[in-house]
Every structure is written in structure tokens, then in C-alpha cells.
């Protein structure tokens, strides 16, 4: 089901040669949320936007999931308002699978939905991340770590220390302690938990580093002898190197903790990358991720009592 | 002047063939701060450690700077206690020059000295970072940015928003607004300000990404045809690519805001990298960085009034 400007969508589908697909339906919107819209304003004034329509359809049960490449802040605010939080979850989290050195994806959350997180929120994120890793990629007893500035117990903010205590006391999670930024991609943990500010900065820093290294490598190649040959030979390696950080298969951050499934795609996603975000949503529908999160949180609370 | 176990130091200097150097002097210590020592405990109990002796020498004016590759947390706690803060600075910051896409270094602070920073502290860090960029690498009116999770004014935590307001009102700084993680290395800013937790995670994440990309690139090289030739040809590029993120010339994080000069070297620094940390200290002595920071902060306060 496509939410948006129907004539425009029809034209694009015709151009792509798929307009006649029998399962395509439209929900027309006159309005849209722009990338510059403030989330709070979009929430109040953009009730006839494609984004709002898509979320309303999830809330009504007409569709099972919403996939959007739009304004992230507005999507979070609207999804929070329309779909509401699951019982036992205070704040939503953006979670994404990242590549790791051992080839297995690592789930990191929150990547920017909740700026300030207290210990309880970080604890809930840990439970939600573990459910994602178990359900979506089938890791049994995923290793959960808190992102911190050191591995020792004394390091970090008070919230993180308290969250670590809560996680240590929880028998339903395979909590392995603190992890530092240099181990995000090492494969030491399957789920990495942090607040939205730190997660967002860390993720975007990766992008910056990848660009810097690519530039350096290209310069390095140019400066060496046999430059032309080497440059030509290296091109695929350099390209795969950059894509290794931004691969299509890692597109799609799930907004979790809500009573419905919402997947955020990169705004500049390729066709394949957008497909990957849709696949992510389908997988969450099949595995009933929101219900599993709710069940797991209830279980944790029962075991705690 | 070497602080530490004198017999051990003498032996090492003899092995290196420089024991007879006329300017070498020793301050013997029986004790040392280990990497596992808690900062607070080291501060209380390690008064006869090499680290404490080195800082005492700075405080007494016997030496002009301390360069240490020891326990970072203990060094910060001890330096804070022994050297005291400059007037107008509430908390110390670790600052380091990082590489950027345009070839010019970018100063980032705080990298882990102060976990929680309020708006005033972030403002002071901005002033200190600007002085470093001006004095140490001679950038006139360095562009100062706050690291945030978005470039819009509405993004981020309350501290960051208030710090941004303080920086906008300050005529003595070339404040350019918010910057995101993906622009840390883009060359958009000369000084990037954040709290110690975020800075530490971001910096260590860079290390993790660099390792991941190197591993991916090596795998990519192996999988391609002409593998042996290509691998051999690419080796220098791949090596320089990794070193590009961890280069010897970027070793040496300065602990600033104190009434004395302290430079922290990586614990596993090579000879060249350690030399670079010493050079950094010498430069700060020559440019009288602590006095310049003090003067600039006074100037800012006068202009504000």
C-alpha cells in the first residue's frame, strides 16, 4: 500500500513498469512531512501527510508495518503518538543491524530516538535489543553489552552504572558488561545498548571515518608507483570497502517499543537498500516482534519479583 | 627527566645506547600506578609513584610539562589534584588533533576527562579548543562546532542547546553551530566540542571502524582474481589506510584547563608516536598554552560583561 501523492506515485510505478501489479493500492495524501519540518510541528499540523496516513493504517490494523524514508524525527514523534508505547516500555528506540568483523550482524540501539535515557530505559532497550537479535537473526541468548567509555565497573555516567546493575540482576538476559567504542564491530557482543545521543553520534562517526579512510586510500593509491595499474586493480576493493560500512543489506532501522512495526530507511537508499528495509519489516511482522518484546518484558518483571 | 624505577630506566637507556646523554636525569620511584588502578585510589595511595612524581615536578616548576603513557583516569585525577584548574575553568578536558579529509588536523575535546558536562563546561571547552588550534597549529579564528545528533537548532540535549546559545553570544569565538558525527573528519570545523563520554565513544568507534574496514578490504582483496598480485600491491595502501586513523603523528592527547602541561600518550605507542607526544608537550610549553587559555577566558568574560 502506497501512501502519498497518488498521481505522482502512479507515474513512478508506470515508469518502473509495475503499475499493473494487482496488490498495489494507494492512500492519497495532499500533504507531506518535509525533511526540514520540526517533529513537534509535523505531529500537530501534518495530519493529512503520507507519513501520518501510513502510521494510521498500522494503528487501524489495515497494514502490518510502515516503512518510511522520510524525516526521522517526525516519524519517531508521530509513531510514538499514533501507535503508543508497549506496556513496560517508556521510550522508543531506533535499532539497526551493523556489520561486524566476524561476519555476524550486531544490533545497536538507541540510534537517536531517545536523547536522554535513564537506567530503566537503557534496561528496557537491552531487553528489546535481545528480542530483535533472537527473533530477526535467530541468535540464541544474544550477548548484550552496554556501550561505555571503559570496561571497568567504575567508568561511565550514573545512569549507565545503574543500568549495568539492573542488567546484572536480570537472569533472562545474557549480559556481558561494558563494551567500548572500538569493540562495536569486533563481534564481542550481539546487542549493544546506549542512549540515543551517543548511538547517533557513534553511527554517524562511522560514516565519517569510512569516508576519510576511503579518501586516504585513494590518495595513497595515487601516490604510489604503478599508480594507474594499482588504482584500477584496487577500485573494486576500495568500493567494497566503503560499501562495507554502508551496505544495502544493513539499511533499515527499526523503531521499536511501539505497538506496531515501523522501519526507517535511509533517505538516499538505493532500490536494493529500500527492499532490504521492507524485508526487515516483513521479518518483524512474521516474527511478531512487538508481541515478543511485550512478552519478554513481562517475563523479566515476573522473574524479578 | 625520567620518573620511575631508576635501575630499570638506566638499563633501558643503555640498551637504547643513550644512557650517557648529558641532559638525562632521574627521579626514582619505588611505586607505580598500574593500568588497573582506580583513579580515586591511585590518587590517595600512590604518592610515591612515577606518575605522581612527574606531576609534582610540573607543579614545582622543575619541569615544564609531563608526558605519560600510563593509566588515563589516574593521570586525569592526579593532574587535577596536583596542578589545579585554571581560573575560569571548571573541569579538565582531553583534546587531541585528529586527521581530516582536507589534510588539516581538527581538534576534538573532550575525549574522556569529564563525563557529564553542563553548558558552561562545554563553553569553556570551546574556548580552550580554539586556543589550542590557534596556538599549536596556527589556525586564525578557528571554526568551532558543537557535536550534536543533528544540525538543526532543535536537536540535542538541553546542555548542548544552552551551550550553543552561550557560544552564539560570544564575539571572541568563530562558532559555526552544530556538527554531526559524519562531519568530524570532513574538515568543516577546526574545533569540535562534546562531553567526555560522547568524545571517548566517538574516538574509540573510529578505531573499531578502521579495523573493520581493514579486515573487509583484506577479505575483498583475497576474494578477487589475481589475488596474490593484488594483495601484494595493495599491502602498502591498506597499511597506510589503517595508520591513517591511528598515525604516529596524531599520538598525544593534551589534558587542558590545568595550571600546567600534561600530555597523554597511547599506552602502546611506538617510539615515533611517543616522540610526537613529547613534541606536542614542547609546543605547548613554547606557546604557553595554559596562560593563553587563561587570558582568553578572561577576555571572553570581559567582553561578555
Automatic annotation (TrEMBL), chains A, B:
Database matches in InterPro entries: FA_synthesis, Phospholipid_synth_PlsX-like
Pathway of action: Lipid metabolism; phospholipid metabolism
Protein family (similarity comment): Belongs to the PlsX family.
Reactions this protein catalyses: a fatty acyl-[ACP] + phosphate = an acyl phosphate + holo-[ACP]
Protein name from the UniProt record: Phosphate acyltransferase
Organism listed in the record: Alishewanella aestuarii B11
PANTHER family assigned to the protein according to its UniProt record, in alphabetical order: FATTY ACID/PHOSPHOLIPID SYNTHESIS PROTEIN PLSX, PHOSPHATE ACYLTRANSFERASE
Gene name in the database record: plsX
GO molecular function, one term: phosphate:acyl-[acyl carrier protein] acyltransferase activity
Keyword Cytoplasm: yes
Top-level enzyme category: transferase
Assembly and interaction partners: Homodimer. Probably interacts with PlsY.
Amino acid at each position: 500500500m502506497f501512501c502519498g501523492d497518488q498521481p505522482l506515485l502512479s507515474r513512478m510505478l508506470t515508469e518502473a513498469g509495475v503499475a499493473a501489479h494487482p496488490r498495489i493500492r494507494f492512500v492519497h495524501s495532499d500533504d507531506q512531512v518535509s525533511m526540514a519540518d520540526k517533529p513537534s510541528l509535523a505531529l500537530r499540523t501534518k495530519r493529512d501527510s503520507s507519513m501520518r496516513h501510513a502510521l494510521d493504517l498500522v494503528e487501524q490494523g489495515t497494514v502490518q508495518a510502515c516503512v518510511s524514508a522520510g524525516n526521522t524525527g517526525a516519524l519517531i514523534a508521530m509513531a510514538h503518538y499514533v501507535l503508543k508505547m508497549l506496556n513496560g516500555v517508556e521510550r522508543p528506540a531506533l535499532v539497526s543491524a551493523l556489520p561486524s568483523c566476524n561476519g555476524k550482524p550486531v544490533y545497536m540501539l538507541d540510534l537517536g530516538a531517545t536523547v536522554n535515557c535513564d537506567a530503566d530505559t537503557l534496561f528496557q532497550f537491552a531487553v528489546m535489543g535481545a528480542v530483535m537479535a533472537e527473533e530477526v537473526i535467530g541468535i540464541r541468548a544474544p550477548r548484550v553489552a552496554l556501550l561505555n567509555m571503559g570496561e571497568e565497573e567504575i567508568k561511565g555516567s550514573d545512569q549507565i552504572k545503574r543500568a549495568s546493575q539492573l542488567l546484572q540482576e536480570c537472569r533472562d538476559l545474557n549480559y556481558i558488561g561494558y563494551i567500548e567504542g572500538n569493540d562495536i564491530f569486533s563481534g564481542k557482543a550481539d546487542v549493544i545498548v546506549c542512549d540515543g545521543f551517543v548511538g547517533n553520534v557513534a553511527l554517524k562517526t562511522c560514516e565519517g571515518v569510512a569516508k576519510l579512510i576511503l579518501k586516504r586510500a585513494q590518495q595513497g593509491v595515487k601516490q604510489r608507483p604503478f599508480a594507474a595499474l594499482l588504482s584500477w586493480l584496487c577500485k573494486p576493493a576500495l568500493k567494497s570497502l566503503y560499501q562495507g560500512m554502508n551496505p544495502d543489506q544493513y539499511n533499515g532501522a527499526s523503531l521499536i517499543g511501539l505497538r506496531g512495526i515501523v522501519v526507517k530507511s535511509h533517505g538516499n537508499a538505493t532500490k536494493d537498500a529500500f527492499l532490504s528495509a521492507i524485508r526487515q519489516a516483513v521479518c518483524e511482522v512474521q516474527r511478531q516482534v512487538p508481541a515478543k518484546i511485550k512478552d519478554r518484558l513481562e517475563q523479566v518483571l515476573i522473574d524479578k519479583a
